[in-house]
Amino acid sequence: MRFLGTDFFSRDVLAVARDLVGVELVWRGSSGVIVETEAYAVAGDAACHTAHRPSAREFVKHMPPGAAYVYFNYGMYWLFNLHVKGGPRDGLILIRALEPARGIELMKFRRKKQRLDELCSGPGKLALALDIHGEHHGTPMAGRGRPAGCGLRMTDRFSESDVVSDIRVGISQAVDFKWRFLVKGSPHVSVKFGKVKMAG
Predict the structure, then answer these.
(1) Residues 6 or more apart in contact with residue 58 via CB below 8 angstroms
(2) Any idea what the CATH number is for the domain that residue 107 is in?
(3) Is residue 156 a part of any domain in this protein?
(4) By residue range, what is the domain housing residue 55?
(5) What is this structure's pTM?
(6) Cα angle value 93/96/97 (rounded, 5°)
(7) Which end of the chain is more exposed for a tag (fewer CB within 10 A), N or C?
(8) Alpha-carbon distance 179 to 38, whole Å?
(9) Closest listed residue to residue 162, CA positions, set 25, 21, 8, 17
(10) Per-residue pLDDT of the chain (200 residues; tens, 9 = 90+)
C-alpha cells in the first residue's frame, strides 16, 4: 500500500489527528498501527509548544507538512509528532500509542518487555520501541526526502465508529479540549477513554 503524501498533512490539524488513527507508522524495519493521537494547534492552544517555544514556531514556519517533530520530554523520553500545515489550523500531532504490527521481536528487545500491550502504549514507549530519538527531528515522513523504510500508510484495521475523542493527557493548559483521538477499547492506548484526570 502506498505511503501517505504531504496532501494528507495539509488539512486541519484535528481532521488529520483523527484520520491518523488506523494508519500504520513504518519506521526502519518496525511498524505499528496508530491507536491514539493528540492534536495541538499553532494558534489558540496554550498547550502547544508554539505558545512558549520559539524553536517550535520556527519549525512550523519553515518545515513542510508531514515532517517529524521530535523532542525530549522531562529529560527522560523522546516523543514523536507530525507537522500539519496548510489547512484551516496548522499544528503538531503527538503519536501517543501504537498497536505493534511488524518487527515485534526487535521492539520487545528494545523495551525489555514481552507483552504486546506494553510495547507501544505511550509516546515514550513507542519511541523506545522504534528507536526514535533526537537526530530524527525534522525527518520528512511524507513527500520529497522521505527516507526509505519510513512513512505512513493507510490500513483497514479500524472503522470510523471505533474512534472516539477525549481530553488530552498530562497538560495544565487548555485542559478541556477534546483533542485526543483513540480506539475505544484498545488495550494498546496510553490512557483509556474517559480515564484522564483533568488538571485542577
Answers:
(1) none
(2) 3.10.300.10
(3) yes
(4) 6-183
(5) 0.97
(6) 135
(7) C
(8) 6
(9) 21
(10) 789 999 999 999 999 999 999 999 999 999 999 999 999 999 999 999 999 999 999 999 999 999 999 999 977 899 999 999 999 999 999 999 999 999 999 999 999 999 999 999 999 999 999 999 999 999 999 999 999 999 999 999 999 999 999 999 999 999 999 999 999 999 999 999 999 988 75
What are 176's three cell numbers? Answer: 478541556
Which set of grid coordinates corresponds to residue 72? 525530549
Amino acid identity of 38? E
